[in-house]
Amino acid sequence: MSNEAVVRAFLKGMEQPISKVPEHLRESMTHDAVWGNSGFPPCVGIEDIMSKHEMSAEVFGDYVLTAEILNLAEGPDGVVFTERIDVGRTGAGEHILTVPVVGVFEVRDGKVSRWTDYFDPRGLLENLAKLPDVEAFFTGKK
Questions:
Q1: Pick from 88, 85, 131, 109: nearest CA to 6
Q2: φ, ψ for residue 32, nearest 5 deg
Q3: Which of 38, 39, 111, 129 suits a disulfide with 118, CB 3.0-4.6 Å?
Q4: Which range has highest mean pLDDT (77-91, 104-118, 126-140)?
Q5: Total Cβ atoms within 10 A of residue 70
Q6: What is the rounded CA–CA span in Å between residue 98 and residue 138?
Q7: How many Cβ atoms are within 10 Å of 46's Cβ, its own excluded?
Q8: First-residue to last-residue Cα distance in the chain
Q9: Strand, coil or helix: what is 29?
Q10: Name one Pfam family in it (predicted).
Q11: Among 90, 93, 74, 72, which Cα is nearest to 12's?
């Protein structure tokens, strides 16, 4: 499978209730993967990445995030770049966020080993401010 196909499948697999996403991450990412979001400390290792996704349910509930891919390109070194619109909706279909994103993915042995998203965090920060322990969201330590 090409790196482009791996990334498309990875993003498609994210389109399920967030409570089910951690298992998808475990199956689709390397054990030492790094996930970064512009302006925030990176998550290092699959357990840390899964933890952040579990914590996002505290902010948004058991939402579903859909990634509408606008453009996708794979460089000669195999790095995959995406331009997309990520849309979050509750299980009932209520819109909770829309975020334009540029994502960069590295793939190793058919799994995502690095995932970095660049976006305007304003909408996310407004919702994170509702958390009783917002520091835990960033550090993974409660």
A1: 109
A2: -105, 20
A3: 38
A4: 104-118
A5: 12
A6: 21
A7: 20
A8: 39
A9: strand
A10: LEH
A11: 72
Two tokens, residue 68: 């509408």
DSSP 65-111: EEEEEEEEEE-TTS-EEEEEEEEEE-TT--EEEEEEEEEEEEEETTE
Query: What pLDDT, in 10s, does the model give residues 9-58?
Result: 999 999 999 999 999 999 999 999 999 988 888 999 999 999 888 887 77
> pTM surpassing 0.90?
no
Six-digit token string for 62: 């058991």
Going by C-alpha positions, the residue among 48, 42, 34 that lies closest to residue 115 is 34
Residue type, 88: G
Is the CB of residue 67 less than 8 Å from the CB of residue 84? yes
Domains and CATH numbers, the chain: 3-137 (3.10.450.50)
Helix (H, G, I), strand (E, B) or coil at 32: strand
**Joined tokens for residue 141:** 């330590």
Size (the chain), residues: 142
